[in-house]
Design a protein that fits this description.
The chain is α/β, with parallel strands linked by helices and 449 residues long. Helix 1 crosses helix 6 and helix 8 packs across helix 10. It is globular. The two termini are 23 Å apart. The relative contact order is 0.16.
């Protein structure tokens, strides 16, 4: 048993229910979606990923010096996941991503998606798109799609929530930060638009007025037009009846709190990476070790421009051929140093040496990228024929922020008898995507074999 085999079973279910491996367009797939099939998907998902599985034993476990593995800690959203995964795969050997679909086995019975699929229809559509666009990366082994064992252990879940509450109580609430506030307001508005997409004009206007009674008619008209425009950008359209009495869920899933992700890093020998300012700010507030004052400049401010405007299938091919491997080797060296060095004793000369090595690796890989790019253009792989673009963000990896795992996490490992796959503490990296617009894969054929 492995997560890969379980994922393949689940993909077979999606193929059977929605004909993903036979249909030619997103529109055709949209027409196959019914409430009955949504309910059936959740039912089959809970059978495949059932309560008899030892999820901790199925986690990938890698030695950081041999294979650089990262956990994506951020929005598990179908419209943005490929931006985060395709680009970051240039910098790491393997990426761990958590399943976005809600398992009925760990859901309040009053909201069970098998019995109440209408409640979950928007979340389901987002998850279905997520699974389709990430499929090739999962089958290739570059992405490990997992479920966290902590989510399936009620006591562990409460334990890590309590650790997070204690941290927030000690360090402050990050939502007061202006940058974080802007980021979250934008995300909430985006979710709001997607949640109401698909309603008839009459019902949409009625609900907007009910939700925002203080708004003028002109403002209501503005929101109405914004929602209609957002519908045009969605690859999967849903034309199902709303039960306004029962409502509909609007969810924001990012895998877990810092302590939860830290524990997963130690279980798998991974580091975490995020593109969200709210997570970055929490990491900064948690910081106390002077080591990071020295180390934070290690690969801060270095532009990593690979894959700008590149077809996603081509990005996967680059990884499968192990191109641009120099950057991964250099970051593997950094990860090994972090894992084996006493934070307080590291010398600034060592930091500078690592920094120089990393910059040299970036320089060499840029030369390699220019050749890859040039060859691809000659063979018409890029340019006008490419339909599945990554939307040109410039990625800058800025301070790797790490801090001592709390004593609470160490106690949890001790109680459960779980082996740690990092000698020291897991670290986190913030990847600054300058352009965070969703990058839709408009050509379904590029997502499947």
């Amino acid at each position: 048993m492995s997560f890969l085999n379980l994922n393949k079973q689940f993909y077979n279910v999606l193929d059977e229910l929605f004909q993903i491996n036979k249909l030619r367009s997103w529109e055709e797939i949209s027409k196959t979606i019914t409430l009955e099939k949504i309910s059936k998907t959740y039912e089959e998902y809970s059978k495949i990923f059932n309560n008899t599985i030892d999820r901790a034993s199925l986690l990938p476990k890698n030695n950081p010096s041999e294979k650089l593995t990262s956990i994506f800690h951020g929005d598990l959203d179908g419209t943005t996941i490929i931006n985060n995964i395709a680009r970051h795969s240039c910098y790491t050997d393997e990426i761990i991503v958590l399943h976005p679909l809600q398992n009925p086995l760990i859901t309040n019975p009053k909201m069970n998606p098998i019995e109440f699929p209408g409640l979950w229809q928007r979340d389901f559509i987002n998850s279905l798109y997520f699974y389709i666009v990430i499929r090739k990366w999962v089958v290739s082994g570059i992405v490990h799609l997992i479920q966290s064992p902590i989510d399936y252990d009620y006591n562990a879940t409460r334990y890590f929530w309590d650790l997070a509450k204690r941290r927030v109580s000690d360090r402050g609430f990050v939502i007061e930060d202006e940058e974080v506030k802007q980021e979250q307001e934008l995300k909430l508005f985006q979710n709001f638009k997607y949640t109401l997409a698909g309603l008839s004009d009459e019902i949409l206007i009625f609900n907007l007025k009910k939700l925002m009674p203080e708004k003028s008619d002109d403002e209501i008209d503005y929101f109405f037009k914004e929602i209609r425009q957002s519908e045009d950008s969605l690859p999967l359209k849903l034309d199902l009846p709303y039960n306004l009495k029962d409502g509909i869920l609007n969810l924001n899933k990012n895998g877990g709190n810092l302590e939860h992700i830290d524990a997963l890093c130690e279980m798998t020998g991974s580091y975490s990476f995020t593109t969200e300012k709210i997570i970055k700010r929490q990491l900064e507030l948690r910081g106390t070790n002077s080591y990071w004052t020295k180390f934070s400049t290690l690969h801060s401010g270095i532009n990593l421009n690979y894959l700008n405007g590149v077809d996603v299938s081509f990005a996967l091919q680059i990884r499968e051929e192990d191109r641009l491997a120099g950057v991964r080797r250099s970051l593997r060296e950094i990860s090994t140093t972090i894992d084996s060095t006493d934070f307080n004793n590291i010398k600034e000369t060592d930091i500078l040496a690592l920094n120089d090595n990393f910059k040299e690796a970036v320089k060499s890989s840029e030369t390699e990228w220019e050749k890859i790019n040039s060859d691809a253009k000659k063979h018409n792989i890029l340019g006008a024929v490419a339909t599945a673009f990554i939307t040109e963000p410039t990625s800058i990896i800025v301070p790797a922020i790490s801090l001592a795992s709390s004593i609470g996490i160490s106690e949890y490992f001790k109680q459960k008898g779980i082996k740690r796959y990092r000698n020291s503490n897991p670290f986190s990296v913030y990847v600054d995507l300058k352009n965070k617009k969703p990058s839709f894969l408009t050509d379904l054929k590029k997502c499947i074999f």
